Amino acid sequence: MLRKIAENINRAPEFVGTMQYNISMREHTSFRVGGPAEIFITPMSQHSFLFVIHYLQNTQQNYVVLGQGSNIVVSDKGISGFVISTAGLDSIEYKTDTKELRCGAGCTFEKITQFCIENSLSGIEAFAGLPGSVGGAVFMNARCYNCSISDILVATKYVNKKGSLSYYTMNNKDWAYKTSPFNTSLYGTSVITAHFSVREGNQNEIQNKSTTSIENRRKKGHYTFPSAGSVFKNNRAFGKPSGQLIDEAGLKGTTCGGAQVAPWHGNFIVNTGTATADDIKKLVEQVTQEVLRQTGFELECEIIFYGD
């Protein structure tokens, strides 16, 4: 049944892209874990993306939209049904009249950073080196070096729950720390473009600031092993960052199978080479329980566990 639906999509004149079967999610997530996606679709245009979602909704199929997979852990059993990748939605356009940088949901921050440097556009430097895509960053309201995506976001285009295109204009009331309307009131919709406020600046200064952001991440061990960056949200009510609480609980370096709390940063869990999704999940639970036992504070995980 699912294969037949996939074949119908692939043959449709409205679809331009790739259709793959039983693709390992290890190759599509930053943790490098996870079983196979039953059907993995990569539309190469906004029109094709809309067509796929509308088709799957009309045939009442389950699907998940995936960006760079930098904040998710896919089950070792994989994902039944359809995974729709935004990787083909990676256009970038600068609108000189509104000073907006318009980026496709699948656009990486590496590509955005390079575009901004080449075109002397400032405002995105804090996100240089972020291992994710625009859609994911908007969904979780990514925060880097005291700057949140909501600080620079102007508007988005997204696919609503009926499979048609909608436009969202920035409203600060909808946003908070690591919170966006797309993971609350608009959950189940899919961002396809984001419009960011930028300004013209000095090319050398933009490049230097971007390089500094990347080097800071490197020094903190972001690229040492496969990971999803920060595992737990910070909570001001705790009085300390989550990483410090984990450190003071004596948990840095703790392992579960091939997963490890990074010895250099309490709020990172890394794949040392042989981790499974189950290892990571168990280690998250172990850290949460031990910090709760020692401090009375319950850490909130920001990683999304997905799959069967």
Task: Provide a compact summary of the structure.
The protein is 28% helix and 27% strand. It contains 8 helices and 19 strands.
Detailed description of the structure:
The chain has a five-stranded antiparallel beta sheet. Strands 1-2-5-3 form a four-stranded mixed beta sheet. The protein has a four-stranded antiparallel beta sheet with strand order 15-18-17-16. The chain is globular and about 60 Å long. Helix content is 28%, strand content 27%. It is built from eight helices and 19 strands. The model has no long low-confidence stretch (mean pLDDT 95). It starts with a helix and ends with a strand. The longest helix is centred in the C-terminal third of the chain and has 19 residues, at 277-295. The protein has 308 residues and is an alpha+beta fold.
Task: Supply the key terms.
308 residues, single chain, alpha+beta, globular
Write down how many β-strands occur, each being a DSSP E stretch of 2 or more residues.
19
What share of residues are in beta strands? 25-35%
Reading the helices and strands in chain order gives HEEHEEEEEHEHEEHEEEEHEHEEEHE
Could you report the average pLDDT, rounded to the nearest whole number? 95
Structural class: alpha+beta
Strand order of the largest sheet: 6-7-13-11-12
Q: How many H/I helices?
A: 8
Distance between the termini: 19 Å
Q: Would you identify the regions where 5 or more consecutive residues have pLDDT less than 50?
A: none
Cα-based radius of gyration, to the nearest Å: 20 Å
Give the fraction of residues assigned to helices. 25-40%
Q: How is the biggest beta sheet arranged? A: 5 strands, antiparallel
Shape: globular
